[in-house]
Each structure stands twice: as C-alpha cells, then as structure tokens.
Amino acid sequence: MSPRNVHAPGPATPRDEASPGACFTVREAAAFLNLNEKKLYELANSKDIPAARIGGKWLFPRALLEEWLLEQAHGGALTDRLLITGSDDPLLAATVSALAPSLGAEAFVAYSPTGTLTGLELLARRRANVCALHWGGVEHSEQQHATLLRSFGGHRQWALVRLALREQGVILRRGLHIDGIETLAGFDYRWAMRQAGAGSRHFLESALASRGFSAADCTAVATAHTEREAAGIVARDDADCAPGTRAAAAEFGLDFLPLGWEAFDLALPRDILFRRLFQDLLRAHAGPASQALAQRLGGYDLSPLGQVIGLD
C-alpha cells in the first residue's frame, strides 16, 4: 500500500520579508516604515531611530522599531508610564514615592538614579523617559546643560525643564567641623567618592581645581553611585565625607560644607513634555507636601520649577 500525501522537501526559499526575524535589514525596515532607504539612513546616522551598525551594515531591532513607531503616533503608546533616571535627589524621590500610589494600576512612575552622564545615555537609547541632571555652578548652568545634551544623539527632539536650584557641597559626618575643602583634600580624611560622570563629582572636581587640588588628593575609601548612597556611607561612619547636596546631608542628619549653588534640570523628549504623567509630576513637585519637605531639608530654591530651558 503506497503512502498518501507524502512530499519530498523542496529547496530552501528566501525568508519571507513580511515576517522577518529579530532584526530588519535596511530594505526590510524601509518597507516596514514606508520610507525610502536614503531617509532611513539619515535617521539611523543621526540616531533618531533605534538601529545598530554591525560589520558595516545597519540592522534595526524589530521590537524596538515597532515601539518607536507606536511612540511616534499621536499621544504615544507608552503614555501610561514614566521612567526617570539620571541624578539622585531626595525631594524628587519623595515626589515620585507620593505620586506612584495615587496612580494605582492605571499608570506607572519610577525613579532609578544612575548619575548624570549614564542617565543621558539611557535617555538617548530610549531606555528611560526623563533624565535628571546637574553639571556645574548655577551661573553657567543653561549653557553647560545645553552643551552637555548636544553631545547625545536625539537631543534635537529633547526639552530641558528646570526643577530646582540646589546647594551643592560636601556631606560631613556628624561632629566633623571643617572650615574649607582644602582641609579635607590636604589631610587624610576618608571620602565616599562619587563615580565618574556624576554631577556631584564634577562639581567637587571644579571646586578642588579652583583651589589647586584634584580628586586624586582625596583619600577615597568607597565609591557611591547615588547621592543618598554617599550620605548613607558617611552616616554609617564608613567615610568622613562625600560630595553631595545640603538636602542629602539633612536627610541623614549629617553636617554639610557648602560650595555653591547649581541648577537641577530634567531632560526629556518634547513629546513627553505635555503628557499627563509628566505634568502630574510637576504639579506634585510644586504641591504643599514637596514645598514643606524642601523647606525642612534646606538647600532648595523651587522658584524656577517648570521653566523650559532653550537648547539653542
């Protein structure tokens, strides 16, 4: 009895372009987006679209490209979540903690500090929605922050919103009375140093340089990756001092050596600027609870809250 409906396998056929694998080629991505390939190359080279150059060829991760396309649609696809990264701040952390429960299961807001430069890289890679940043003294902050943002791909679609002015300096262990940063740098005090790319370290390095010192003159016994981690190390007496804000020192009941004021800003894509979640965040930060906490901690000026800073 001969078998029925048995067929020998045919020759392998090219992959169906309508159902590609994990990554699109240029041709597939152009067809998917209904763009010509020249325009797609422009978007890839300017880092305005998720893409990777491997072995001289552009590849477009399908999942990220689909997400990017949805985000370009009116209102965006991910308007129910707000992921904040970048610099650490006690007041912003308190605002997020208070806002999150009020949203219930309808939306999600989270804050994961990484330091200024790493936060901007995450923003550029579309891994976060908002990056908190500070870079140098307040007198040059608008120029410095705009210059910093221009070094990242996609910055032409970003906005910069001022959240506060903060007093920056050195967090000191309880009872350590120091009259100047020169003493901390010139003698064998133990530092919980911030990582490279952190705004607090940049501020400290500038202050040290103006007095003829450098970070290499400081005895670092630990590396702290957030403002509050640095304060925690000092509070446990594992270090004598750390770069940071007056507010972080006050939150842990520590002493503080002031060095100057800085601007604390939020960088974000312009299409997120007027989303409900981001506006809810700004309203909560301007609310009476945040205002009262800012006054208790000290070292904040919230008068410029919500000001949009030009990048040109």
List keywords for this structure.
312 residues, alpha+beta, eight-stranded mixed β-sheet, three-stranded antiparallel β-sheet, globular, disordered N terminus
Q: Would you write up a description of this structure?
A:
- Helix 4 (90-103) packs across helix 12.
- By secondary structure, the chain is of the alpha+beta class.
- The protein has 13 helices and 13 strands.
- The protein has helices spanning 26-33, 37-45, 62-72, 90-103, 116-124, 141-150, 181-186, 199-209, 227-235, 246-251, 270-273, 276-286, 288-297; strands spanning 23-24, 52-54, 57-61, 81-86, 108-113, 130-133, 158-172, 190-194, 219-224, 241-245, 255-269, 300-301, 308-309.
- 35% of the residues are buried.
- Strand 8 (190-194), helix 8 (199-209) and strand 9 form a beta-alpha-beta unit.
- The strands form three sheets. Strands 4, 5, 6, 7, 10, 11, 12 and 13 form an eight-stranded mixed beta sheet that branches. Strands 1-3-2 form a three-stranded antiparallel beta sheet. Strands 8-9 form a two-stranded parallel ribbon.
- The radius of gyration is 24 Å and the shape is globular.
- Helices cover 38% and strands 24% of the residues.
- Residues 1-19 have low confidence and may be disordered.
